[in-house]
Amino acid sequence: MSVFAQFAVSGIIAGSVYALIALGFALIFTASRVFHFAHGGVYTLSAFAGYTALVTFQLGTPAAFGAAILVAVVLGTLINALLYEPMREKGVSSFVMMICSFGVLIIMINVTAMIWGSNPLVLSQGGLSTVYRFGPIYITDAQLQIIGFAITLGVALWVFFQRFKLGIAIRALGNDSELALIVGMPARMLRHISFAVGSALVGISALMIGFNVGIIDYNMGSDIILMAVVAMIIGGLGNVGAAAGGGFMLGMIQNLALWKIESKWQMALSFSVLILVLLFRPSGLFGDKRPAVGL
Amino acid sequence: MDYAIYIGTLIAIYATLAISLNLLVGYTGLISVAQAGVYGIGAYVTALLALHVTNDLLVSLLLSAVAGVLASLIVALPSLRLRNEYFLIATMGFQSIIFALFMNLDVTGGPNGLYNIPAPTLFGFSIKTGLGKFALAAGLAVLCYWLALRVTGSPFGRLLRAVREDQTAVASLGKNVFRVKVSIFIFSAVFTAAAGTMSLTAIDPVAFTLDESIFIITLVIVGGTGNLNGSILAAALLIVLPEIFKFLPIPEAVAPQLRQVLYGLLLVFFTRFRRQGLIGEYRDVLK
Fold it and tell me: Which residues of A touch chain B, with CB atoms under 8 Å apart?
């Protein structure tokens, strides 16, 4: 039983990590309908920016978060302004933007490796993390922060996109950007804001996850962005909160499966779940019944 | 000289891979990122045959193609129900599953891969030299190019392009769109898997990742979707270009990354500014 409980907690922790990345990704997707894979590169570079502020220049934790957020916001908005927006203006489909995004991801990951080297870097605060014990379960303060942040953000964004006028407007924009323009919405500005906010979220998450794992490396973004896409699709498209739900679901599935399946099959398992959801429940597990996303 | 022959072999292999994918992308509008997986299946089938059964090239070509087609059908049949991004993401899922199989099964040698693979024999002659391997790879590329030209120039080729332009219209004329797509998937899989049989002395599973699939897509887009000559040109350019780094004062540690950055830049540049590729069809196929 205690083993099961620990697996479940590991599932929640992994799920929070996926949820955090999926939230920013889904926010951007909801507004722009772009599968912004370069988000994984923004994640990587902002973690390294945080590292540089914290370890190289010894500026302290708040400055590290500031650096991570700044780099993330600048990169995210630039990618949108220089690539996606001009492509949209020319009538290029979001499908081609997605392929373009792969290119940006490749560039960012490899530039990170060229600047900071391809060996992992230690991002610890000197082993200060406190371990809490709840009965048979062990959990660190970094993990509690991640879980708390993911749940809070997930709920907040869910409410924002379901109840608030601006949230509903952004969803409408994603569904039909031309119509949004016709009714006088500042479409381009709303997309810029979504990219900035989504990127800021991933900047914060990158550093929190870095603190939890203890090390960062240039390849950290490529697998996690795939998991974020899986999380968003199994959660449900067109609803940001559902993506967080998908993240938790994915973390739980991966970790509970460890009972029966070796960990080396985790990726394959996750993608099998993705394919099953795409085929049998394309609207996702928690999403709107009819997501207008051209599936 | 050996070096030039080796580069030539690589170009021939990647030209084959690019032409095979171009048939899917440029003629039917399907972008599959499971190509590296199918390519890998060809490589593993050949290697396992050579290690345990026979190194006869014709046998390994035939069985690799069969295995590649089967794998490709497993990928295509469910994925073809989805469109555009969702099709690509479904094939991405399959790509990752195939890669996990390469990495984790016992028969594939796990992360170590397979090595000491005997050279193939063709009609009793062992093909050991670099030149022999080049001739094989080039032969396959030429065959693939010629057949692809025949297919795309045929009435079936017109049907393919029609599916790309407007599949609803094609369906309304009583054509079976699904069958057209599956047919071209099979053709593509045969040559993708066959490319895997070439030039093997050892297999490293890392050669068959999602990144490799994206590289093959880069070749197709840089060359021009829907243009077979473009695919060959792009394969030659993108293999040769990074070799120039070797003559520049660049530290050896960053050379592989610089190569990736170059590929990424090309992918971004062509999707952003020149979607018809170097010598693609006049209008935007990628729209």
Answer: 35, 83, 86-87, 91-100, 102-107, 109-111, 113-114, 118, 226, 229-230, 233, 262, 264-265, 267-268, 271-272, 274-275, 278-279, 282, 294-295
